[in-house]
Amino acid sequence: HLERVTLRMGLVNLDDKTMTKLIENKSIPQTLDLKIREVVGDAVKKLSIDSKVEVEKIDQIFWSLGRSICFKDSPFCDGANIENTTFESITKINLKNGCPFRKICEAYKNIELRQIKESNVNTIYY
After folding, report:
1. Could you tell me how far CA 88 lies from the centroid of its own chain?
2. What is the pLDDT of residues 42-64, one digit of tens each?
3. CA-CA distance, 126 to 121, in Å (whole number)?
4. Strand, coil or helix: what is 27?
5. How far apart are CA 64 and CA 91, in angstroms?
6. N or C: which end of the chain has fewer CB within 10 A?
7. Could you give the CA distance from residue 77 to residue 40 in angstroms, rounded to a whole number?
8. How many alpha carbons lie under 13 Å from residue 82 in its C-beta half-sphere?
């Protein structure tokens, strides 16, 4: 969830070829998956430093956003009638009126980016 949310929001910029693979949910090699995870981790660490919010809290916020409204196949940027989401449990913010990050989210501005999926990699780990 964290990878998908950070990529959609525009916190991480990848080359066009990789972005196309993620949008089309194409399989990628594990080496590329690890590189994407590394740049996502670096972006979250930088955001933590800039915002003075702990990395773990940012991770929880973005992870729960991906689990609650920024779904893999169809994000509900403008809100949905969803109650008791993981995001609301963690942040106390209700998502009925939409994603609280949509005004700064690249995928909200560019509908094609809403199709970004997390890495599709063949591994024994997940």
Report:
1. 17
2. 999 999 999 999 999 999 999 99
3. 9
4. strand
5. 9
6. C
7. 21
8. 23
Cα–Cα distance, 77 to 64 (Å, whole number)? 14
* Closest by Cα among 3, 1, 5, 2 to 114: 5
pTM of the model: 0.88
Side chain identity at residue 38, one-letter code: E
Q: Which of 32, 20, 31, 105 is nearest to 65 (CA)?
A: 105
Tokens of 47: 């955001």
Tokens of 9: 């929001």
What pLDDT is recorded for position 123? Answer: 64
Q: What's the token pair of residue 120? A: 């599709």
Residues 66, 2: contact at Cβ < 8 Å? Answer: yes
Q: How far apart are the first and last CA of the chain?
A: 13
Tell me the residue type at 71.
F
Q: How would you label 76-93 residue by residue, b for 16+ Cβ within 10 Å and e otherwise?
A: bbeebeeeebbbbebbee
